[in-house]
Amino acid sequence: MLDYFQELNNNSKDNNSDLVLWNNKKTTVEKKSVFWKRWFERGINFVSDLLSSDGKFLSLDEFQKKYDLEVNFLHYFQLLAAIPLDLKRKAFDSPTPVFHNEPDVLSNQKIPWNPAEIPVF
Q: Which domain holds residue 8?
Protein backbone atom coordinates (compact mmCIF):
# COMPACT_ATOMS: atom_id res chain seq x y z
CA MET A 1 0.00 0.00 0.00
CA LEU A 2 2.83 2.39 0.82
CA ASP A 3 4.30 1.73 -2.63
CA TYR A 4 0.94 2.63 -4.18
CA PHE A 5 0.77 5.93 -2.26
CA GLN A 6 4.36 6.73 -3.24
CA GLU A 7 3.57 6.07 -6.90
CA LEU A 8 0.43 8.19 -6.60
CA ASN A 9 2.49 11.06 -5.19
CA ASN A 10 5.19 10.71 -7.84
CA ASN A 11 2.69 10.72 -10.71
CA SER A 12 0.62 13.57 -9.36
CA LYS A 13 -0.12 16.26 -11.96
CA ASP A 14 -2.65 18.42 -10.12
CA ASN A 15 -1.13 17.82 -6.68
CA ASN A 16 -4.31 16.30 -5.19
CA SER A 17 -2.38 13.41 -3.65
CA ASP A 18 -2.28 15.43 -0.42
CA LEU A 19 -6.00 14.59 -0.04
CA VAL A 20 -5.13 11.00 0.88
CA LEU A 21 -5.67 10.61 4.63
CA TRP A 22 -3.18 7.86 5.39
CA ASN A 23 0.58 8.32 5.60
CA ASN A 24 0.16 11.97 4.65
CA LYS A 25 2.80 14.36 5.95
CA LYS A 26 0.21 17.18 6.03
CA THR A 27 -2.26 15.26 8.19
CA THR A 28 -0.43 14.34 11.37
CA VAL A 29 -1.23 13.37 14.93
CA GLU A 30 1.51 14.18 17.42
CA LYS A 31 3.75 15.11 14.46
CA LYS A 32 3.39 11.66 12.87
CA SER A 33 1.39 10.64 9.83
CA VAL A 34 -1.29 8.08 10.58
CA PHE A 35 -2.69 4.88 9.13
CA TRP A 36 -5.74 3.31 10.76
CA LYS A 37 -6.31 -0.09 9.21
CA ARG A 38 -9.94 -0.48 10.36
CA TRP A 39 -10.86 2.82 8.74
CA PHE A 40 -8.96 1.98 5.56
CA GLU A 41 -10.80 -1.35 5.34
CA ARG A 42 -14.12 0.54 5.51
CA GLY A 43 -13.16 2.64 2.49
CA ILE A 44 -12.11 5.76 4.35
CA ASN A 45 -9.11 6.90 2.33
CA PHE A 46 -9.51 10.57 1.46
CA VAL A 47 -10.30 13.80 3.27
CA SER A 48 -13.51 13.99 1.23
CA ASP A 49 -14.66 10.70 2.81
CA LEU A 50 -15.11 12.67 6.04
CA LEU A 51 -17.14 15.48 4.44
CA SER A 52 -20.87 15.86 3.99
CA SER A 53 -22.33 17.12 0.72
CA ASP A 54 -22.24 20.69 2.06
CA GLY A 55 -18.48 20.56 2.70
CA LYS A 56 -18.65 20.19 6.49
CA PHE A 57 -17.12 17.35 8.42
CA LEU A 58 -19.59 14.56 9.15
CA SER A 59 -20.83 14.48 12.72
CA LEU A 60 -19.61 11.50 14.70
CA ASP A 61 -23.05 9.91 14.41
CA GLU A 62 -23.20 10.49 10.64
CA PHE A 63 -19.69 9.06 10.24
CA GLN A 64 -20.47 5.93 12.26
CA LYS A 65 -23.69 5.29 10.33
CA LYS A 66 -22.14 5.94 6.92
CA TYR A 67 -19.24 3.53 7.48
CA ASP A 68 -20.90 1.16 9.96
CA LEU A 69 -17.95 1.74 12.26
CA GLU A 70 -18.04 2.54 15.96
CA VAL A 71 -15.18 4.77 17.03
CA ASN A 72 -14.24 6.67 20.13
CA PHE A 73 -15.26 10.33 19.71
CA LEU A 74 -11.78 11.48 20.77
CA HIS A 75 -10.22 9.31 18.07
CA TYR A 76 -12.55 10.76 15.41
CA PHE A 77 -12.05 14.37 16.41
CA GLN A 78 -8.30 13.84 16.70
CA LEU A 79 -8.16 13.05 12.99
CA LEU A 80 -10.49 15.91 12.06
CA ALA A 81 -8.30 18.33 13.99
CA ALA A 82 -5.22 17.00 12.18
CA ILE A 83 -6.58 17.94 8.74
CA PRO A 84 -5.49 21.44 7.75
CA LEU A 85 -8.27 23.79 6.65
CA ASP A 86 -6.76 24.21 3.18
CA LEU A 87 -6.98 20.44 2.60
CA LYS A 88 -10.60 20.40 3.73
CA ARG A 89 -11.43 23.15 1.24
CA LYS A 90 -9.48 21.42 -1.52
CA ALA A 91 -11.24 18.10 -0.80
CA PHE A 92 -14.64 19.72 -1.12
CA ASP A 93 -13.69 21.23 -4.49
CA SER A 94 -12.02 18.07 -5.89
CA PRO A 95 -13.64 14.83 -7.03
CA THR A 96 -12.90 11.77 -4.91
CA PRO A 97 -11.13 8.92 -6.75
CA VAL A 98 -13.09 5.66 -7.04
CA PHE A 99 -11.39 2.28 -6.77
CA HIS A 100 -12.66 -1.13 -8.04
CA ASN A 101 -11.63 -4.76 -7.39
CA GLU A 102 -7.91 -4.84 -6.57
CA PRO A 103 -6.76 -7.23 -3.83
CA ASP A 104 -6.16 -5.52 -0.51
CA VAL A 105 -2.57 -6.40 0.40
CA LEU A 106 -3.30 -5.96 4.10
CA SER A 107 -6.26 -8.31 4.42
CA ASN A 108 -6.28 -10.40 1.21
CA GLN A 109 -9.82 -9.16 0.57
CA LYS A 110 -11.06 -7.28 -2.44
CA ILE A 111 -11.34 -3.53 -2.24
CA PRO A 112 -12.84 -1.45 -5.04
CA TRP A 113 -10.17 -0.53 -7.60
CA ASN A 114 -9.75 -0.61 -11.36
CA PRO A 115 -6.40 0.46 -12.87
CA ALA A 116 -8.17 1.87 -15.92
CA GLU A 117 -10.13 4.24 -13.66
CA ILE A 118 -7.24 5.60 -11.61
CA PRO A 119 -7.64 9.35 -11.65
CA VAL A 120 -4.69 11.44 -12.71
CA PHE A 121 -4.02 14.01 -10.02
A: 2-95
Whether 101 maps to a domain, the answer reads no
Residues 109 and 86: their CA atoms lie apart, in Å, by 34
| Contact partners, residue 18, CB within 8 Å, separation at least 6 | 24, 26, 87, 90
Name the more confident of 25 and 120: 25
Domain count, the chain: 1
Query: What global pTM score does this model have?
Result: 0.65
What is the CA 26 to chain-centroid distance, rounded? 12
pLDDT per residue as tens digits for the range 96-105: 555 433 444 4
Cβ neighbours of residue 23 under 8 Å, at least 6 residues apart?
A: 2, 5, 33, 34, 35
Question: Does some domain include residue 116?
Answer: no
In a domain, 33, yes or no: yes
Contact 110, 104 (CB under 8 A): yes
Residue at 106 is within a domain: no
Digit-coded pLDDT (tens) for 40-89: 999 999 998 998 888 889 999 999 999 999 999 999 999 999 999 888 88
